[in-house]
Amino acid sequence: MYNVFESMDQKDHEQIVFCHDSDTKLKAIIAIHDTSIGPALGGCRMWKYSSEKDALTDVLRLSRGMSYKAAIANLNLGGGKAVIIGDSKTEKSEILFRSFGRFVDGLDGRYITAEDVGTTVKDMEWVRMETKYVTGISRALGGSGDPGPVTALGTFAGLRACVKRKLGKDSLEGLRVGVQGVGHVGYYLCQHLYRAGAKLFVTDADKESLKKVVNDFKAEVLGLNDIYEADLDIYAPCALGATLNDLTIPKLKCSIIAGAANNQLEKESKHADMIEDRDIMYAPDYAINAGGLINVANEIEGYNRERAFSQAQSIYDTLMVIFDLADSENISTHMAASKVAERRMKDIAKLKNIYLPRKNVMGKRDSN
Ligand code: NAD
């Protein structure tokens, strides 16, 4: 039998909410991992899980990841995530998402939702009809819109930090960068790299996306699997997860791995150590790709694109802090990133609990 409390205890989760509505056929799980820094923010994934246990395992894993991502990005947010069990192609409806919205509203701001794999801005607009605790709304409705450009800018800032640290350079002029996946983030990353004078090598399963970066940024196309063995200074994974594994790491010729993809390490500690042993600098994925979270987090205080872009630039400094700790404690950058995030969660949890007027999480302090 699956032991829910034991699973929560293993990674220190605060709360799980099982949401069920027989009229709308909603079956959702909201997991709140840690709210010591602020309300738990994290997307709502819609997926056809093969079992309820798989859905629960996924939401626990993802919500914990959000705590670390928010903590390291210096946001005043905790980590949470939701999953809706169902087929995102055939089982979506207005009432399903409005029903989910009511459950989110019932948490009164402890959890703030957003779009994720299988959900869209339109779905979040249905959620918003029932709750204000939702981000990732379209620009037209005052939201933050496509996070791709902000994520790309943050990734570029992180990549510059890696170049400074590993190669001792402030400029990217002439560096050979391989970008794997030139979609919403990869395209804009290529734009920054091209403007900075880097030589671009790209791969993507989609021919149209490739054509655009070849035309716009004079990129050279590589085969889908050739990117691992290519003669590159920097490998920038911006497509799938788990591309750093037993098969690919030994092939890499680059000295830096810095890209936006989520969950790049197939097995976190093992593959972080393998990369370290090869003397390759790895920018921890959730630190370098935090621009997307920074973008939606900005909606909470009223979206301001300039502020979001400026916060994304600070990923440069965040990576420097991680590299300093990794050097001083002789640990992998992956391990150092976890330590920096955990330290911030613990430090803020220690803040003295003096009386303050009740805070409304979506804005100002309440007057009463
Ligand atoms: P996207 O779907 O727009 O782009 C991904 C691209 O990768 C597509 O063009 C796709 O054709 C290509 N691709 C798929 N399989 C491939 C393969 N085997 N080899 C090469 N290319 C392949 O997604 P995105 O929004 O650009 O996000 C890219 C990555 O960054 C994802 O891992 C995502 O989780 C992560 N990420 C995105 C954001 C964001 O703001 N969009 C934020 C944080 C993290």
State Rg.
21 Å
User: Looking at this structure, what is the CATH superfamily of the largest domain?
Assistant: NAD(P)-binding Rossmann-like Domain
Mean pLDDT: 94
Question: What is the CA-CA span between the terminal residues?
Answer: 47 Å
How many domains? The number is 2
> Which sequence of SSEs, written as H and E, runs from N to C?
HEEEEHEHEHHEHEHEEEHEHHHHH
| Helix proportion range | 40-55%
The biggest beta sheet, please?
Answer: 6 strands, mixed
C-alpha geometry: globular
CATH class of the largest domain: Alpha Beta
Bound molecules: nicotinamide-adenine-dinucleotide
SS-based structural class? alpha/beta
Low-pLDDT segments, ≥5 res = none
User: If classified by CATH, what would the architecture of the largest domain be?
Assistant: 3-Layer(aba) Sandwich
Tell me how many strands there are. Answer: 12
Strand content: 5-15%
CATH topology of the largest domain: Rossmann fold
In DSSP terms (H or I, runs of 4 or more residues), the helix count works out at 13
Please, could you describe this protein's structure?
It contains 13 helices and 12 strands. With 368 residues, it is α/β, with parallel strands linked by helices. It folds into 2 domains: 4-64 and 78-137, Rossmann fold (3-Layer(aba) Sandwich), CATH 3.40.50; 148-290 and 317-343, Rossmann fold, CATH 3.40.50. The chain binds nicotinamide-adenine-dinucleotide. Residues 147-148, 151, 180-186, 203-206, 209, 224, 238-240, 260-262, 289, 292 line the site of nicotinamide-adenine-dinucleotide.
